[in-house]
Amino acid sequence: MAATARQQSEPSIPELVTSATADVKLLISDQIALTKMELQSSARTAGKSMALLAVAAFLGVLFFVFLLVTIAYVLVAVGLPVWAGFGIVALVLGIVAAILGIVGKKRMESLQGPQESIAQIEATKQALTSQLGK
């Protein structure tokens, strides 16, 4: 009788599997909830940061424009006609833009896709296909 009482107090294998499954589901749902909370917090911080960066970029562009106008007027104050001062600044900007465009184009031409990832996906696909085909 002692053996039967002990067997009844110990959970059966289906009960253990059901309990483990429920625990795993609870763990996963808790992890998902934690991830959502972290992502929401990060998204708020990222949004505020992006707004600050956008304002900073706008002010930086305004600064650059005013700097260029100042340089043009400095050239005028040195003795050049107004058209020449602004023309020199525009010419320098055009040259810098052309150089940056050429460098950017060359870098774009050297871009490659995720070749290693694609190769790994293909290898995994072939391995799974060969295992399922057996």
Kindly describe this structure.
By secondary structure, the protein is mainly α. The chain has one domain. The protein has helices at residues 2-9, 13-78, 82-109, 115-133. Helix 2 (13-78) runs antiparallel to helix 3 (82-109). It is elongated. The mean pLDDT is 88.
Features:
134 residues
Compose a concise summary of this entry:
By secondary structure, the chain is mainly α. The protein is built from four helices and no strands. Helix 2 (13-78) packs antiparallel against helix 3 (82-109).
Topology (elements, then pairings):
Blueprint: H1 2-9, H2 13-78, H3 82-109, H4 115-133
Q: How many beta strands in the DSSP annotation? A: 0
- Return Rg in Å: 34 Å
Give the total of domains.
1
What class do helices, strands and sheet pairing give? mainly alpha
The average pLDDT is: 88
Write the element-wise H/E pattern from the N-terminal end onward.
Answer: HHHH
- Tell me the fraction of residues in β-strands, as a range: under 5%
- What form results from the Cα inertia axes? elongated
Major sheet characteristics: none
Low-confidence stretches: none
Helicity level? over 70%
Separation, N- and C-terminal Cα atoms = 51 Å
Report the total helices.
Answer: 4
